[in-house]
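Model: You mentioned two targets. I'll fold them one after the other.
Researcher: Yes, keep them separate.
Model: Target one:
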Amino acid sequence: MTPAVLDKLRSLVGAPRVLTGVDCSPYALDGRVPEAVVLPGSQDEVAAVVTLAAEAGVPITPWGGGTRMGMGAAPQQVGIVVGLARLSRVVEHEPGDLTATVEAGITMSALQAELGRRGQWLSLDPPDPGRSTVGGVVASNASGPRRHLYGTMRDLLLGVRVVTGEGLVVRGGGKVVKNVAGYDLPKLFVGSFGTLGVVVEATVKLRPRPDEDRLAIARFDRLKDCGEAVRALMASDLVPSALELLDAGAAAALGRGGGATVGQGSTAGAAAAGSGPGPQVWLGVDGIRSQVEWQCAEVERILRPLGARECRVLDGEGRDGAWRALAELPRRAFGEVAGVMRWAALPAQVAELAAEASAIAGRHALRAAITAHAGVGVLRAVLAGGGDAGRVADVLGEWRALAQGAGGHAALEWAPLAVKERVAVWGEPGPAYRLMKAIKDRLDPHGIMNPGRFVGEI
């Protein structure tokens, strides 16, 4: 990047808002430090920065809280990181319409606190809500256990405002729930990982906060029994907000804490959740008090005949700490994490796939901790080990083949650069690649938006 471009950036956002040199280190991607980090304070400033980058041919990397930046192919060049932390306002909250319009840099915890003052919430629970931003959740389609009942950002997003790769500010969707005019452009940007533009504003639909919120945990001796328990729960009259399966490795990691430094609530919740060996089934329940109490009692009635050795119900800080510990599992599971892979399959296959994946790791003398959003068929596997990137890559390759053999697909959520050089992050792009590339070319004709990091090196 030329000194002239840096000078123009400083004139656009102010010299203190342009970082260079060692100050850019916290924004490194796969060991590559950006040439500059720009912290715009308005949508117009974002548009001006992108326009300048397009003219200069400098790549742009949008940055929210940085929680999902490890996902994606290693970049060839990190030019300008556009940090959105200063765009953190609640633009409009309409409690009567159950909608809110917010700037992309607001964190999930800050948004939930603001909405909670009016008895409402955005029904998403991505990991690390203190750092995860609304824009980042849109760009990565991040979600958590509550997706079982409430869905993902694709289901809650009503409208977006984005800055395209040409520096144009474009709005898609609207501010009302019943909005059916034209193409559903907001969904185009969900999960686009910053390759189509910079999300600067989002309109989302909200829900009233539930009266009660509890977590039921059942421990089993065999993973196979957990699979049977999941099927029984899904066939019952229960309406859980979350349905999680943990293999023995994941449950043990939560119990021992993995040596991670976490808050007291996380530690207490993890100890409660991971007490005793064996795989587990977690079931989140929220709603009115009588309904929640009935469902918690029904869980034990259903699961005891299926082999549940222990059934406990957590509330308050114990519940919140357990959920936080589960979200932190990749950091808690082992002293050294070699890779994290996420794959999707049919819900009925979850327990079997988890068992096979653990066996694959064992054959390579590595350990795994596997969890699943069991009701929707999304598994997350954490692999332990270090030093031998080839062996790690072999396991990840077999995991991908396992998922594909079951009719699903897999993506590498995190791995060190030495492993990424051996294992494709996204796998084969498939027949949709030509359409994806055409959309990319239309919205980012200069190819500057997070280039090369998404499917098919888009």
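Model: Target two:
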Amino acid sequence: MTDGTMSRRGLFRRGAGVTVLLAGGPIISADACSGAPDAAYAPWSLWNDPKARGAPLALVAAGVLAANPHDSQPWLFRVREDSIEMFADTGRNLGAMDPFLREMHIGLGCALENMALAAPANGFQVAIEMVPGSLDGLGARAGPAHAATVRLSRLARPAPVPPAYAAIPRRHTNRYPYDRRQALPRGWREAMAGLVDGPDVRLVLFEAGADRAAYDTAVIDATQAIIADAPMIADSDRWLRSTPAEIERFRSGPTLDAAGLSPLTLAMAKAFPVSPQTQHQAWFTHTRDEQLSTAPLTGLIVVRDRYDRPTALAAGRAWQRLHLAATLAGVALQPLNQPMEVVDRDRQLGRGAAWDQRLARLSGAGDWRATFSFRAGMPSHAAPASPRRALGDVVAG
């Protein structure tokens, strides 16, 4: 490893039948979630496999089920008996949708949160060390970039397992319309702010009034801006998986089943291919007419420095905490990050700060800047799981 990077040589490959080894012996076979029908969804059931329990790899198995942008799963892990190094896999970046790898680092932070939650259940205490520095320049970097190290020490006695640990395999992004007839649980609503702690990360919520209207308009306008930006929408489209063969091949990316479509629309989308232009218009109208209009609550995670690497990781940990707590409370959540993606694109192209200033007005007084946007509500349908890559594809030898 040189200058915080590592070669992808030595990664376990899908279908190779390789077993991940640590000093204590075999932990879990990489082909346990490779090659079989529907293998792309196997990690959701294998995450707490008894073969991995009590070993560092169990934390990775929980980490890879975390939320992440476009289901790109942009992580690599180097596992040791006393540490797990996490790397940003820059080769899995979203291009013009995430030119500074800001969203990638938020996804890495989500994985860190899952790993921290999994530690007590597996007999570990963890200390997380985040790599300092700026996101500027990372988008052009070749090869993985070290993002954080999870230091492991054995617990002298069993420790309480956080309730959110049980929600890890149940947490899924819900893109369906929400049920406005059901009220959000008051206890969950009141506890939200306490889940986003730290001096550089906080939560801003919108329910009604002028600020909520401005939030909705910002998401709608940003969606239109992305559709009109050919490189942005192309970099988004390349992650879409439309067929079972694509899902099994890539084991990542958004799928039709998870798009929140009605049964009839879903059946038609699978049976009759449509043009990209039709897909983009459907995304716009679904966002405006079904997702925003049915959400009783929306919000922003705001930060002091949008392009600081540790802050982006901390924002991801906050989002994962929010989503796991919502899962326990029966609440549905969905990211709506289009406005921040347009801010990044403007910054990349030097187009001025109009969008940044627009979001700053929503973020509150001072120098707080939005880095994550979402909606919340009671589910009208259960959200399906997303594909996940096998552990052998993300663990370095």
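Researcher: Noted. Anything on target two?
Model: Residues 309-329 form the longest helix (21 residues).
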